[in-house]
Design a protein that fits this description.
single chain; 17% strand; ten-stranded mixed sheet; alpha+beta; 33% helix; globular
């Protein structure tokens, strides 16, 4: 029995008992069944949520042209935007009674006087939309009807977006939407992470049906019903000519004759969409080749022993000063540094080359060459809406030049003994970027075995993925633990000849084996929407039994291919079983059953839960059991001795760490998460989980609330909202910087005035916030400008002289130095809201405390600022500060398509990147979840 089946044996038995025969899928021909019993809402009006800009994500051609010509918006496409934005100014005076000024009422159902429309795509389901936000409340009398309704509503609200994402997942975006350079870059970054043939996708559907017991069969029946609902709306909207206008603008359908087609959706499309969503938000690990290069650079500078020590102090696998989600001292050892590493495969210096991806370019491939078509006068206003890509470069997490995998989202939970009511309170949600429409959609699902309201990623919305049930709520943050490894496979030639670095055969368990070649050939021509000139290219990846080839190198003089292998590859949608459980009121009845449900989700997420009695946490993910002595932070030899335990490449299965070894907790005084370290012993999968992290902005505030007691929904929301407009560098690092600078008087009056500006800003809370609502100017604007200009320069002045150019460059390749809201060069691009996740905050903190002679747990191996001398460090900081202070705003904030040079507020502002033809206004910067819940259950079943 494969290890994967072993993992789910207990869950399968429980699933059969929980489901019973009555929940097996009704056939598509099933008529209406008896009205289900009324659902009791135990939140009693104390559940709220928000998802800007609005629920409606579809726009007809008329809607798009109206938006371009007059700035009009379709109903419910922007009616949550002002409430979301308003919390910046409104949080200081927030009370429980005022929460609905900034959030939706997330109660179940729609009061009769609030019904806007009722649609019945089948006799066994109704879709009721409310007047306030247009959210679909889907109620089915059969299981099939419920899921069909969910698919139909998804078509109503996100048809074009779902079509985009199935093509992104399949590596076919340019052929579908146009050859804009950003589209080329997007498919070139996403497809190699999850390249599949159609047979591969079909095999994943079959795997869920055959390996996940009754719940797996039910999940695929639900998914088929969901697809049927999408297709029903697709056909109906096409015939009725109210389909999304983007199909006309991209040349798919003729606006006059209606000739053309929206391709039918199928189950394998859902696997493709899941690969994009799960891979970007639920991945973890990888990057071992780049880590090896920085280790080699350290060893070359300092020698092997000292260089390794220096590198490990920057790698911070187990920093004792890191903020933790489970902070009661419980340890969950995983992926740590072995005492004596075995099988590590470091490349020879200078031998690493990236595996080529693009071949056979023609026309505009690799360029931004335009050749606008002659558009009809009626379409002129919409011409070129996709010239910069359907998703601008860098907008999606993990995409864009120099992008890093992003963990996102935050959570604040307080247990009942510290709240005013005695019930736990949660303020939590996923931080998934800002798009118009959003990647997720709000919905309520009520039917046999399903009772929940919340969000689902468009195209995989059979179940609510984060939201609330009858008497509980749950959410997630990206965890990012190490579920991806890099193997060095020895190359060979089938005839026994000497292999070269570009050989296409490799040794697998002693046999010279051919690499599998996977290809996508894309071509495009200009349309009204995308003026990019005609072009084409071929993408090619090599697949081995150890994963996808990413680099070539030599190890000890012998040629190897480095491959990337993640546990969730070939299992992109297996997590559907866990989500099914979370939506099932007969399964989730308390914190323990919630944790078991979350344990069936394979991607790396931190899951949080609150009901009227308990706040709880569980970390999910397919954590492989590695061979003894393997160092997961570095490449390892592709030999059977060093493979994952029980590894079978046929379906990419292995042995996984058991449920109890994943970080988990129930009833802790409070929980915070902002993609920080989960628990003691749970080793960081990458650089940056050190002494200062953006989660400190939450932890400090929530700890203070808990100490004071009497926490309310409003006070916990205020803590989140205050952290959302606070500059991490100003709050956490400026005090230490000022201590060094003020160790002696600043003699230069002008420079002393600059220091005083920073001191005043820090004393006022280090916020990036308007001086008054709508002013579009920050209080302490000059101090903010100085910090933005100074931070990159001070990091370089502090570390580069000691590390040297080579090692400094290698380490900054592992971890960017800065990610301010205005840092368009950062992993999230500009205008994305999320900020201060990646940066050298922890390094600067430890180094300055070492200079000041303060105690430091887990110190850097050397002291860098001024080579450890306080006066020299102070001089370096002041020199860089003087230079930064002289930079004009136009240089610090250089401007872009949305802002003029020097516009500070605008440079920070959140822009909902249009994925379709409807644009939205910019809003105030907030470092906050995109979808967010505020919940407090006063009762339970």
């Amino acid at each position: 029995m494969p290890p994967r089946t072993v993992k789910f044996r207990a869950a399968t038995v429980a699933a059969v008992l929980a489901l019973g025969t009555t929940l097996l899928a009704a056939s598509p021909q099933s008529g209406a069944a008896a009205e289900p019993a009324p659902v009791t809402d135990y939140c009693q009006g104390q559940c709220d949520d928000i998802l800007p800009p609005g629920e409606n994500g579809n726009a007809t051609l008329v809607d798009i042209l109206g938006n371009k010509a007059f700035g009009t918006h379709p109903a419910h496409s922007d009616d949550q935007l002002d409430r979301y934005n308003g919390l910046v100014a409104g949080h200081a005076a927030l009370t429980d009674q005022k929460l609905n000024d900034f959030f939706n009422d997330a109660s179940f159902g729609v009061p009769k006087d609030q019904v806007e429309s009722v649609t019945s795509p089948r006799d066994d389901v109704t879709i009721t939309r409310d007047k306030a936000s247009g959210v679909p409340h889907i109620k089915g009398t059969t299981r099939y009807g419920t899921e069909f309704g969910a698919g139909f509503a998804a078509g109503q609200d996100r048809l074009w977006l779902m079509d985009l994402f199935r093509h992104i997942g399949r590596g076919e975006l340019t052929s579908f939407a146009g050859g804009a350079l950003a589209n080329q870059g997007l498919e070139q970054q996403f497809w190699p992470q999850a390249p599949y043939t159609e047979a591969d996708l079909e095999a994943q559907v079959a795997y869920i049906r055959t390996h996940e017991g009754a719940r797996g069969e039910q999940a695929m029946a639900d998914a088929q019903a969901y697809v049927d609902g999408i297709n029903a709306y697709r056909e109906k909207s096409k015939k009725g000519r109210y389909f999304p206008g983007e199909y006309v603008l991209t040349g798919k359908i003729d606006a006059i004759t209606n000739i053309g087609e929206i391709q039918p959706f199928k189950l394998t499309d859902l696997i493709s969409i899941a690969s994009v969503v799960g891979g970007q938000f639920g991945g973890g690990g990888g990057g071992e080749v780049q880590a090896a290069l920085s280790l080699l650079s350290a060893q070359q500078k300092y020698g092997v022993a000292e260089g390794t020590k220096v590198w490990e102090s920057f790698r911070q696998r187990e920093d004792p000063e890191a903020v933790l989600t489970v902070h009661d001292g419980t340890s969950f050892p995983y992926a740590g540094k072995p005492a004596t590493a075995r099988g590590t495969a470091l490349p020879d210096s200078g031998s690493v080359t990236a595996e080529p991806l693009i071949y056979d370019r023609t026309g505009s491939a690799g360029t931004d060459k335009k050749a606008p078509v002659k558009a009809p006068a009626t379409l002129k206003k919409a011409q070129g809406i996709y010239d910069d890509g359907v998703i601008p470069a860098g907008s999606l997490p993990g995409s864009g030049s120099g992008a890093q995998k992003r963990g996102m989202s935050n959570a604040l939970l307080v247990s009942g003994k510290h709240t005013a009511s005695g019930n736990p309170i949660a303020v939590f949600g996923p931080q998934t970027g800002y798009f118009a429409p959003q990647l997720m959609m709000l919905q309520e699902l009520q039917g046999p075995g399903i009772s929940a309201r919340g969000v689902s990623f468009a195209g995989v919305g059979m179940y609510i993925q984060m939201g609330r049930g009858q008497d509980y709520a749950w959410s997630a943050t990206s965890a990012g633990q190490d579920i991806t490894d890099t193997y060095a496979v020895d190359l060979c030639e089938p005839d026994g000849a000497t292999p070269a670095k570009d050989s296409t055969h490799y040794l697998y368990r002693g046999t010279c084996t051919a690499m599998e070649t996977l290809e996508r050939t894309n071509s495009w021509k200009p349309t009204v929407a995308d003026s990019t000139a005609k072009g084409s290219y071929r993408m090619q990846v090599r697949r081995t039994n150890y994963g996808i080839v990413t680099h070539r190198a030599t190890v000890g003089g012998k040629p190897v291919a480095y491959t990337s292998l993640r546990t969730t590859y070939r299992h992109e949608a297996d997590s559907i079983v866990g989500f099914q459980m979370l939506n099932d009121p007969s399964y989730v009845k308390d914190a323990a059953s919630f944790q078991r449900a979350a344990g069936n989700i394979d991607y790396a997420f931190n899951w949080f839960y609150a009901d009227s009695r308990t706040a709880a946490y569980y970390n999910s993910g397919m954590n492989p059991v590695r061979a003894a002595g393997v160092d997961p932070a570095l490449p390892v030899k592709a030999e059977r001795t060093y493979e994952w335990k029980g590894y079978d490449p046929a379906a990419n299965t292995a042995a996984y760490t058991p449920f109890a070894e994943h970080p988990h907790s129930s009833g802790q005084d409070y929980y915070v998460s902002w993609n920080n370290k989960q628990a003691k012993g749970y080793a960081a999968a990458g650089f940056g989980l050190g002494a200062v992290h953006r989660a400190d902005l939450l932890d400090d505030r929530v700890a203070k609330l808990v100490e004071e007691g009497g926490v309310s929904r409003a006070s916990l929301t205020r803590a989140m909202a205050q952290a959302a407009v606070t500059d991490l560098r100003g709050e956490q690092l400026l005090p230490e910087l000022l201590k060094v600078i003020r160790s002696r008087p600043v003699a230069d009056p002008e420079l002393n005035g600059v220091v005083q500006q920073l001191e005043s800003w820090r004393a006022a809370g280090s916020q990036r916030r308007e001086s008054s609502p709508g002013s579009h100017a920050y209080s302490y604007a000059d101090a903010v400008r100085i910090m933005d200009a100074w931070w990159p320069q001070l990091v370089e002045a502090e570390f580069r002289p000691g590390l040297g150019d080579g090692l400094y460059g290698a380490l900054t390749a592992n971890l960017a130095t800065d990610e301010s809201p205005a840092a368009g060069h950062g992993p999230s691009g500009a205008h994305s809201g999320s900020a201060f996740q990646y940066g050298w905050w922890g390094f600067v903190d430890k180094d300055l405390r070492q200079v000041l002679g303060q105690p430091v747990k887990g110190p850097l191996a050397r002291t860098y600022c001024g080579n450890g001398d306080l006066d020299s460090c102070r001089d370096a900081l002041l020199t860089s500060l003087k230079r930064a202070a002289a930079e004009p705003a136009a240089a610090v904030y250089p401007g872009d398509d949305n802002c003029k040079a020097g516009e500070q507020w605008c440079s920070d502002s959140i822009v909902h990147r249009p994925l379709g033809g409807i644009a939205q206004k910019s809003i105030h910067w907030q470092n906050r979840p995109t979808y967010q819940q505020v919940v407090e259950f006063p009762a339970h079943r």
